[in-house]
């Protein structure tokens, strides 16, 4: 997998932009663009990545993955099982660690977006998330869970006794772990489709 820095440079040259022009479109300095391209800055915020993809005129998946032959298209997340990556045609992505430096994740990740007409806590229509399938709690954060036969996105954390609890977006609903709850995947990155 090539790294993000050279990909930014290649896409900038393909778009026929100099560093200053790209910097203006993204809202950063041309020095920042140089640091991104050289890899001196490896941590790029999600909003900046979305702005960068828009400025370069390319899909976010191309910025993240590069020009691989079989790019993974975002999978639709629906309320009802099965999980989107259980489709035999689903393709995983390689998520550059500089996109999610706080997440040390081994294994597959899939690009997922809410299906048209579907709504979830923490996700709005057009949002894109990288989900790492897992049934094991590794750290607090957003998870795709199955509860009562439905897919939900919840903040999962441990309570004072070390038991898992599932928290809704507005913390109005805190559900303790029960037999009808199971983890399906950890959301390791999220890009929100809101205007910058």
UniProtKB/TrEMBL annotation:
Residues 8-63 form the HTH cro/C1-type domain. It comes from the Bacteria. Coiled coil: none annotated. SUPFAM superfamilies: lambda repressor-like DNA-binding domains. This is Transcriptional regulator, contains XRE-family HTH domain. It holds the Pfam family HTH_3. GO terms for molecular function: DNA binding. Transmembrane segments: none annotated.
